Predict the 3D structure of the following.
Amino acid sequence: MPSRPFWVALILGILAVIVFTLSASALFVFSVGVALAFFLVPIVNWLQRRGWPRWVAAIAVVVVTLLGFLILAITVSAVLVSQGIAFVQALPTYLDELGSTYAAAELPGWLRSAIDSIITAVQENAENVDQGLVVAGVIGSVVDLIGGLFAWFLLPFFLFYLLKDQPRMSHSFYDRVPPPWKDDVSRILTITVGNFAQYFKAEFVVGGIMFVTVTIGMVVIGIVADAPLLVEFSLLLGAIAFVMELIPQIGPILSYIPALILAVASSPLAVVLVSIFYFLAFNVEGSILVPTFEGRMIDFTGASVLVLIAIGFALAGIIGAILALPVASIVRDLFRLVFDKVVDEDLVLVPVVASAAAVDAGDAPAG
């Protein structure tokens, strides 16, 4: 039977998972800090080996990282905010044009009837929405936004302490681990931190590729199909593709919707070209980019991915949907580690017990 320290560790691990699940939205920022530290610690160690005091190296790395993110965010926001505001302001016009196109289209009676029923149901639900609940929801969103901004404000300080104290934290932690557990604990931490960091690294790489691909594709289609709206909002559509990449399977499909609205408001040729482009992009992303950059870590079937995303969304909203796959991959790899270890121990212990029993039987006096 497992020892009492094992049960203590197991109970504490279960409690940690429960606490993390209940506070996933608040801990998301600090999870980002841990993922960044995974890539920045080697730089701080390199600077320390070059004679820099560790705290100076940590400050320098955090400042450079923060400045890089700020410059990127300001540059991207300057373009995307202006395009986003223009898109939202013009959205009613695009929807009216979409309605006109739908009314003039020659569709089978059963299809038009089904679409009309859906539109009517959506309109009725919109009319029955409680305005008080909408206001309360907006106020709650503003409060959550303020809390989120405060957490992001703490991120540089959290990252600094992680980088500065990493050797001491590591040694202090391992000193308290019982010697027989040290190898297992090291493998568990490698799986947990490594999978989490590698997942988001892969997501950002794939998202960056999709951003460039969609942006260039929209410009080309806009020129070919004489659809200036696609050219005007190409960066916005690329940014939407980048963000939606964080939600596997569903995200790339959602990024197609705003592009389709702009294409419908432009021309039938634009609708055809945009649809073909996104169909090809989805297939390239799913069959080439994801397997290449994410590899076995996201070795889940499509149905499993949808179930995991639904569970994550139900537990922690959009943050849970984003974290569902890395957490599931970590749980899967930890289960394999524990299961393989138990199997190996059983295979070793069973022959030992059997041979000991045989020896005892042979030494027993006859008669």
Remarks:
- The longest helix spans residues 302-363.
- The CA atoms of residues 71 and 304 lie 38 Å apart.
- The chain has twelve helices and no strands.
